[in-house]
Amino acid sequence: MTQSRDAFEARLRQIGADRYHDKHPFHHLLHGGGCTPDQVRAWVINRYYYQHSIPMKDAAFMSRVEDPDLRRQWRSRIEDHDGTETNPGGIRRWLKLAEAVGLDPEYVSSTEGVLPATKFAVDAYVRFVREKTLLEAVAASLTELFAPAIHKNRIAGLLQNYDFADDSSLSYFQNRLKEAPKDVAFGLAWVLDHADTQEKQDAAAKALTFKTDVLWSQLDALHAAYVEPGRIPPGAWQPGTGLLDAKAA
């Protein structure tokens, strides 16, 4: 039976309440000041792979959209990450964070040290958006519904617990507090408008669940490799490498 608009929105929000990665032990460790400098660096390196893939995901989505109004609305997402003449963009802001934690931004942007599981998860998301219906692709982006809360907690936790944290190094998160509400308001309304059958509602809910799994699996990989000792897979970043100090030497 097709749910009412309000009931379906509540169903989507419950997915985030149950499954969003703000509940992952790694985030509790990070936000509470329990991460070592190398664990923070590992997070920055691996999260960069997700950040740099988001514009490619959005470009793949737009390449399939025939409605110019939808393309026009979606275009700002790419500009938010890639930047414009007046906006440095989220990717550059993330590399500023990398530099603040002592990493060589060139090393981070090379993605050489990214965990295999991170690559598999993020690449699966890009492929999902490229291959699934437009409704499923937009629904998968609705993890942004839950992002402002985690950004606020992260900003507060990092400022309280880590010397590298300041307005400059955390500018990515500060900026997303302004950008994400606009994106999610449009995306949520679009999904609620277009998921007008039970089959479509179920597909949209499944897509959002998939995206929460993508985010959760990245933190599982980080926790296994860098919190539980001795489990860094071959080819992944090794502490002591990719640092600004090493480049200077």
UniProtKB/TrEMBL annotation:
Q: Which HAMAP family match?
A: PQQ_syn_PqqC (MF_00654)
Pathway recorded for this protein: Cofactor biosynthesis; pyrroloquinoline quinone biosynthesis
GO MF terms, alphabetically ordered:
pyrroloquinoline-quinone synthase activity
* Similarity section: Belongs to the PqqC family.
Protein known as: Pyrroloquinoline-quinone synthase
Entry-linked Gene3D superfamilies: Heme oxygenase-like (1.20.910.10)
Query: Which NCBIfam families does this chain map to?
Result: PQQ_syn_pqqC
Q: What class of enzyme is it?
A: oxidoreductase
**Which organism's genome codes for this protein?**
Litorisediminicola beolgyonensis
- Domain of life, per the record? Bacteria
Give the EC number: 1.3.3.11
